[in-house]
TrEMBL record:
PANTHER family: MANNOSYL-D-GLYCERATE TRANSPORT/METABOLISM SYSTEM REPRESSOR MNGR-RELATED, MANNOSYL-D-GLYCERATE TRANSPORT_METABOLISM SYSTEM REPRESSOR MNGR-RELATED
InterPro entries documented for this protein: Bact_HTH_transcr_reg (IPR050679), Chorismate_lyase_/UTRA_dom_sf (IPR028978), Tscrpt_reg_HTH_GntR (IPR000524), UTRA (IPR011663), WH-like_DNA-bd_sf (IPR036388), WH_DNA-bd_sf (IPR036390)
Keywords: DNA-binding, Transcription, Transcription regulation
Alphabetical list of PROSITE patterns matching this protein: HTH_GNTR (PS50949)
Protein name stated in the entry: GntR family transcriptional regulator
Region Disordered, annotated ranges: 1-22
All residue ranges annotated as the HTH gntR-type domain in the record: 25-93
Amino acid sequence: MSSRSPSVAQPHNSPEVPAGPLASRPLYLQARDLLLRRIVDGTWKPGGYLPSEPQLALDLGVSIGTIRKAMEDLVGQGLLERQHGRGTQVVPHSSDRSRFRFLRFVHGDGRPLRPVAHVLAAATARADARDRAALGLGAGAKVLVLLRTRSEDGVPLIYERIALPAEPFAALNAEPGTDMLEEIYVLYQARCGQTVARARDTIATDRASPAIAEALGCPPETPLLLVCRVAVALTGAPIEYRQSWTAALAYRSDLD
């Protein structure tokens, strides 16, 4: 009997299975990576449905149990969702879903926040040192920089600076002076084909600069909560560096 480890069969019209050290990984992880690659390359688009488990098992040359475990891993990451009676869907970003997953600011009494974003400025600029470090960019790289406030009932509560790699986000079309009627991660996906898979937040304190103080309606040097976020795409590449300042809100973290 051969002692070679099993590997995922190569389906037609799909990328090659990774070779080398990856071949020793559990079979369901190899299958998961192939499923993820099809989401990344647009074979299965946000809101669309995957083929049935038997069809996927046949396509990849693995058991239904292996496919089911691979899909459960992607469900656990929030990338797939099982729809009763309809199949398994590639999860699209919606404003409500994005707020639930990624909006961690709450009122001091724990009430959820439902903000409206207003674009103050949008311009392409040379990435500064923090942008380059957060986004993994080289010297001279360009970023699209958005400045915006997030308000509730007309009261500005958050001031944000968002830096994005310029080329992938050229179609974002954030016009200064306009409101963003959708959560920004919905716009990343719908306009630029960039899906945020996860984000890492770092919490610090700061003081209001004159520009931030004017935007938030507080005195300069007011103590602020500062949350710095690096958001990551399906490919694992960082695609957003965000700094959010607030004097009025708390940050909620759920620890399992």
